[in-house]
Amino acid sequence: MISAAAPSPAEAQQRERPGQSPGQGTGMEEEDMARPTRLGTLRQRANAGPCPYVKILYDAARYVEMADNRPALANIGYTGEFQGIRSGCSYRGDEPIRVEINALANFGRGAQATGDQHTYRYWVAVTERNTAVLDKQYFDIPVDFEGGQTASVEIERSVVIPRASTTVSGSNFEILLGFEITPEMAEFNREGSRFRVNAGAAAATTPPAQ
Length: 210
Known about the structure:
By secondary structure, the chain is mainly beta. It has one domain. Helices cover 6% and strands 40% of the residues. The chain is built from 2 helices and 9 strands; from the N terminus they run E-H-E-E-E-E-E-E-E-E-H. A 5-stranded antiparallel β-sheet has the order 1-8-5-4-3. The chain has a 4-stranded mixed β-sheet with strand order 2-9-6-7, with no helix packed on it. The longest helix is centred in the C-terminal third of the chain and has 8 residues. The termini are far apart.
């Protein structure tokens, strides 16, 4: 039901550019990972009905490794955050619903990061809206920071949703994306806490509440 169209590492990643503050990207705010967030244009055509609702699950939208689960700047390892998403769908007659998804994810390295490479895992789930999960699959994102502090990856996924009859429209379904995270990470996200790293600034001991 869910398939991939993965870009090559050279096409997928954008690292720090000259003049960018060396500490940026290890935190989790948009200002810290400022870079073009252009996503590819999706093909559109007239459909028999509306498209499924596609969104990033808030609790799993960010990935923040913290040593001993202690929220201090010096304890941060690898970070990740979904920054944008686009989708388009097509179906007519008795065809299944075909959904194309483009998502942008930004990644960073903190003080506890141990190397240039790190593999993140995320999932894509198809649900019957407000009820049951119909399908959920996991995917890996291997990221090479190549000596930089940040990297970006554009993710492409294709989702095919069978229809029981021609009267079933895309509005009956929802597609969710999120990082595979620990319960502690999920709680950190729900609290709205995040880190902001500024070059030359004194290290904060706790993240500012949002």
